[in-house]
Amino acid sequence: MLLFIIFAAFIDASKCVIYSKDQTNFFKSLLPSVNYYIETGYVSVGDLAISENRLFYSLHLKETIMKKSDIKPDDEFILWIYGGPGCSSQDSNFNENGPIRVDDDQKLHARETSWNKQAHLMYIDQPFFAGMSYSTKEGLINNSWDAADYVIELLTQYFEQNKELSKARLHIWGESYGGHYIPVLAEKIKKETNFNLIGIGIGGAWSHPRVQVIPTVQQLINYGVIDQYRYDLMMKSGIESLEAIDDQDYEKFLIESDEEIFFNDVIGPNFRYNIQIYNYDDGDQYEDFINDHKKQFDLPANITFEGCNQDIYMAFAEDQTISVLPSIDYLLSQEIKVFVYHGQLDTVVSHTGVEYWVNLLKWKELPIWKKQKKSIWKFINPKTKMEETAGTIKSHKHLHFCMVYNAGHMTPTDQPEASFQMLKNYFEI
Fold first, then answer.
1. What is the pLDDT of residues 23-82, one digit of tens each?
2. Is residue 300 reached through a cis peptide bond, with omega within 30 degrees of 0 on the bond before it?
3. Residue 138: which pLDDT band, with cuts at 50, 70 and 90?
4. In a 10 Å sphere around its CB, with 0-12 CB exposed, 13-18 middle and 19+ buried, how is residue 291 labelled?
5. Is 291 left (phi over 0), alpha (psi -120 to 50) or beta?
6. Are 378 and 389 in contact (CB under 8 A)?
7. CATH 3.40.50.1820 fits 2-209+303-363+400-414, yes or no
8. Structural domain boundaries of the chain?
9. For strand 53-60 and strand 76-81, is the pairing parallel, antiparallel, or unpaired?
């Protein structure tokens, strides 16, 4: 049953509306092991007198929690924001760390390393036209700051109607362009709301482009993936992309930087998100599942769900050149936990580029953080029952940099057990 919850929150003709649906029985009918509450819905945001603007969310409560009234104030609550820009968080939901995955035959399976074993999970498709979110307004949002305002509006409405979840410990996690979205969103949340924000986690984070373009090429040749000839070509594209930022030619920046990172045409079948993988299955089975159940998810009949929207990617051209390090500095100054994690084999966003920008932060404790030594962290391999090295971590107070070995851009997909332990470590820090 679709529930319509309407309440006034703005002056003028605008109205705020939450459309929520209990999906527990639907998923349980396809996967009997489901033992937690599942909800999907839309939240209408913005000036609804002008246009209908709906952001889609999916909520999975922690395992064994079958109703929202059982949420406790000290529960951990992860809000997941995916990247792109323009990609749906449902990709992460079904392919990375959510409780359910879809196979080639459209059958559902429980994910043994689902993060809802540790926390409540909410995946948001944003901005409008990403995934299942849409608007009747012409034009696209083109920057992380405007996008954040709508997400805050969604959360404000949702917490008003779900007091139990509003008291939980809020953590905002994501990857890739989430490294841009999330610091901006978290800063605005800290400054403009009383949400119980505890920390952020950003993986494969695109956060400070000027120091992240060139290291990608250097990493490729260091890993032996490209030869000197292609290194020279890709370095030329990388340098030209940075010059385009100075010239404020943002479309050229995207074209040149894409030439630099999208190297499949010159080296063969290596998967650019993890160079150890060949002939990769992109995991788009969940797209068919959503489109086959559009009515169940209240997706309008005229919309076909796609994992990523290239138009949004292009609309964010200028935004992709802007550094969000000031937002991260602010969060650290407010004692918000900042957990930066990275897959060792990611060559879309190189770990060396992320190392560079972390060391450029202006946080007052950074000189002490720099002097800390990296330490090894481990996990139990469920197949061998043996303890294995998962990666390295460097920490001081609220800043943590975690490397995950043998993982690429989608770290929880490549190393699910290690990533599950990583999340546990994050909560315990």
1. 999 999 999 999 999 999 999 998 877 888 999 999 999 999 999 999 999 999 999 999
2. no
3. confident
4. middle
5. alpha
6. yes
7. yes
8. 2-209+303-363+400-414, 211-278
9. unpaired
